[in-house]
Amino acid sequence: MNLLQRFEVWVSLLVILICLVFLWESWDLPPGSFEPLGSGPVPQATAFIVILCAGLVIFNALRKPVQLSGDEEIKERPSISAGLIISLATVIYSLMLHFRLMPFAWMTTLFLIITIWSLEKFEKKKFLPALITAIVIGFASEYLFTEVFIVDLPT
Amino acid sequence: MDVELLFAAASQILNPWPFFLLFIGTSLGILVGAIPGMTGAMLIALTLPLTFYMDPFNAIVLLVAMYVGAISGGLITATLLRMPGTPAAVMTTFDGYPMARSGKPGRALGLGITASFIGGLIAWITLATITKPLSIFATKFGPFEYFTLIMMAMVLIASVSEGSLAKGLISGLLGMLISMPGVDPATGMPRLTFDWYMLNGGLKLLPVLIGVFAVSQIIKDALDIGQVPERIAMSSKGMLMSAKDFMAQGVNLIRSSLIGTWVGILPGIGASIGSVIAYTAAKNMSKTPEKFGTGSEEGIVASEAANNATVGGALIPLIAMGIPGSVIDAILIGALMIHSIQPGPTLFLTNADIVWGMIAACLLANVLMWLLMTSSVKYIAGLMYLPRSFVLPIVMVFCVIGSFALNNTMFDVWVMLIFGVMGFLMECAKIPLGPFVIGFVLAPLAEEKLRSGLMMTAGDFSPIFTRPLPLFFTILAVILLLWPIIGDWMRKRRASRK
After folding, report:
1. Separation CA B386–CA B390 (nearest Å)
2. How far is residue B91's CA from residue B288's CA, in Å, rounded to a whole number?
3. Is A1 an 8 Å CB contact of chain B?
4. What is the DSSP code string of B12-29?
5. A49 interfaces chain B, CB cutoff of 8 Å
C-alpha cells in the first residue's frame, strides 16, 4: 500500500468510529411523540450511509495496491518537523490561554517567537526579525481586538 | 430587476465607510489570493468574527468584496509561480506560467485580469436579472421539494468533488452528522450531546469552518515549507487588452463566462470546475488547440473568465433558495445567520436591502478588482515571496482569536483545533473538504424540511415520488449516484467494441 492508501484506510476507520459513537448515542433517543420521525432516525441513517461509504473506500484501497514510482515517493517527503512544530506549539499556546497563565499579548509574542524561529531552524540572523514581528503582532492584536473590536481576550 | 433598489444599494455602498470596507475587502481578497496556500474561504472564515459588531449590510459588502478579490488574486501566483493562489486558478497555470516564462508576464496577467472582470460582469448581469424570478418560483417549494433539492445538491457536490463519489459522500454526510448534536429542531430537546453541557448548543459553524479550512491548510502549508518558488521578473508591459484582443477573444470570453455562471448556479460546485469546463470547451473549439498548455491566450481567458463568473452565478441559488453555490457561499450563509438573517426565497421580502447590497457589492467589487489589479499587480506580486515561516504562525494566532471571539470561550478554540486536525487528515486521504462544510450548513435545513413534511403527511414519504419537482430531484440524484457505474460500464463497452 502507498501512503495515500494507508491514509484512506486509517481515516476511513476513524470516520467509522465517529459514526459508531453517534449511532450508539442516538440509539436511546425517544421516538417522536407529535411527529412521526423522532430525533433518532436522521442521525442513524446518516451515520449508516457514511459507514457504508467508508467501508467502500477501505475496500477499494485494499483491493488495488499501487506501487509508487520514484518521482511520487520524492513528492511524499514533506517537512514533517515543521508540521509538528506548528501543531504542538498551537496546542501549548491554547493550553496556556485556557489556563490564563499569562496576559494574551505576552503569550502570543512568546508563541510567535518560538514558532517562527524554530520554523527558520534557529538561524541566528532570523531571530531579530522574528522577535520584532512577534512583539508587533502580539501587542497590536491585543490592542486591536480588545479596544477596537471589543473582544474579551483571555488576558 | 428592481433598478431603484439596486441603485439605492449601490449608492449606499459608495458612502465612505461601506466603500472603505469594499476597498479593504477587495484588496485583502486579492492579497490573500496572491499568497500561495491562503484561500478566500480561509480569509472569509477568519473575517467573520470581526463582522459580529458590524451592520449586516456592511458585513455582507466586506465579505462579498473578499470573495471577488480572492478568486481574482489567485491568477497572480498561477501565472508567475505555476502555483494556483486559489484552487480556482489551477487551469490558469497551464498557459499563464508558460507565457510569463517566455518573457510576457504583463501580457499573461493583463489577459487574466480583464477576462476575470468580463466574466464577473456577465455573471453579475445574470445574478441581477434572474435571482428574483427564481426566488419567487422557490417560494412555491414545499418541504419535500426543499428536502429533495438539498439531497440532490449533496449528491451533485459529492459527485464532482476531487476523489471518488464515495469520498465526497463521506465528507458531505459527515458534515451533516457533525451538525446534529444540540437541540433537536422539532422537539426542542437536547440530543447527541453525550451528556456534556457544552454540546447543548451544538457545534458552532465558525470554529468548525476555521478549523477545517484555515488550521488544516496551515498544517498542510507547514509541511511544504521547504519549497522555494522560482522567481520570474515582473513587468507591466502589455497589461491592457486592445480592441483587437477583444475581437479575437470575444466569443471565448462570452462562452467561458456563461459556462462559469451556469456552473456557479449549480449547487455546491465551485470555481475550479467552472474553469476546467470552460478551458476544455475553449480548447475543443479553438483553431489552434495545440497551443493550449504552452502559453495560449485563449486558455488564460477561458479559465479566468469562467472562475470569476462562478462568483456571481453561485450567489444566485444562495439568494434565491438559501442553497450555497460554493464553499464560500456556505460561509456567507453562515454570516447571514450570525446576523439573524434567514437565507432563502423570502430574503427579497424580509431583507431586500441586504440582497441588493450583495448584488451591488458584487458589481462594484469587480470594477474595483480590475482597477486595483491593473494598477498594482506589480507590487502585489512581491507578496508571493513572503516567508511562510512568518505568515503561518501569525495566521494561526488569528484563527485562535477568531474562534475565541465567537462566545469568549476556549471550548470553541479546542473545537477549531480538533476540526483542523480532522480536516488535515481528510485532505491526506484525498477526502474533499468542501462537501463537509456544505453538509454542515445544510443539514439542519434538510432535517427540518423532512420532518415538517412528514408531519404534514402523517409519516407518508410518497410525496417524494408523486410530486413532480421532488421526483425530478430524486431521479437526478439517483442518476448522479449511479453515474460512476454507468460511466464505467460504457467505457468497458466502448473498449470491447474497439
Report:
1. 8
2. 17
3. no
4. HHTSHHHHHHHHHHHHHH
5. yes
H/E run at residue B183: strand B182-183
The full length of chain B comes to 498
Beta bridge partners of B183: B190
What average pLDDT does range A10-36 have in this prediction?
90
Q: What CA–CA distances, in Å, run from A128 to A131, A135, B115, B226, B390?
A: 5, 11, 43, 21, 12
Indicate whether B85 pLDDT > 70: no
pLDDT of residue A79: 79
Total-model pTM: 0.83
Q: Does A5 touch chain B (CB under 8 A)?
A: no
Largest CA distance in chain A: 70
Strand, helix or coil for residue B191: strand
Instruction: Give chain A positions within 8 Å (CB) of B450.
Output: 37, 42
Q: Which residues, other chains included, contact B45 with Cβ-Cβ below 8 Å and sequence gap of 6+? A: B206, B209, B210, B213, B214, B331, B402
8 Å CB contact between B154 and B442:
yes
Q: What are phi and psi of B354, to 5 degrees?
A: -65, -45
Three-class secondary structure assignment of B402-415: HHHHHHCCHHHHHH
Tell me which residue in B189, B225, B396 faces A90 most closely, judged by beta carbons: B396
- Nearest residue in chain B measured CA to CA from A43: B177
Please give the Cα distance from B460 to A36 (Å, whole number).
9
Across residues A65-82, what is the average pLDDT?
A: 60
Distance of CA B465 to the CA centre of its chain: 32
Q: How far apart are CA B390 and CA B420, in angstroms?
A: 20
The C-alpha atoms of residue B105 and residue B103 are separated, in whole angstroms, by 6
Across all residues in chain B, what is the average pLDDT? Answer: 86
Which of residues 76 through 95 in chain A touch B, CB cutoff 8 A? 78-80, 82-83, 85-87, 89-91, 93-94
Q: Which chain B positions have a beta carbon within 8 Å of A126's beta carbon?
A: 389
Q: Which of B192, B388, B400 sits opposite A26 (nearest CB)?
A: B192
Collect all residues of chain A within an 8 Å Cβ-Cβ radius of residue B393.
Answer: 86, 89, 111-112, 115-116, 119
Give the Cα separation of B198 and B209 in Å (integer): 18
Q: How confident is the model at residue B262 (pLDDT cuts 50, 70, 90)?
A: confident
For strand B182-183 and strand B190-191, is the pairing parallel, antiparallel, or unpaired?
A: antiparallel
- For B54, nearest residue in chain A (alpha carbons): A149
CB environment A118-154: b (16+ within 10 A), e (fewer): bbbeeeeebeeebeebbbebbbebbeebeeebebebb
Which of A18-22, A53-57, A70-74, B251-255 is predicted with the least confidence, judged by mean pLDDT? Answer: A70-74
Burial of B462 (0-12, 13-18, 19+ CB in 10 A): exposed
- Type of residue numbered B490: M
- Which range (B244-258, B428-442, B478-492) has the least confidence? B478-492
Chain A positions touching B454 (Cβ under 8 A) are 35-37
CB contact under 8 A, B50 and A149: yes
pLDDT at B143 over 70: yes
pLDDT, one tens digit per residue, over B447-459 is 988 999 998 898 8
Spans of all domains in chain B:
3-497
3-state secondary structure of A154: coil
Radius of gyration of chain B (CA): 22
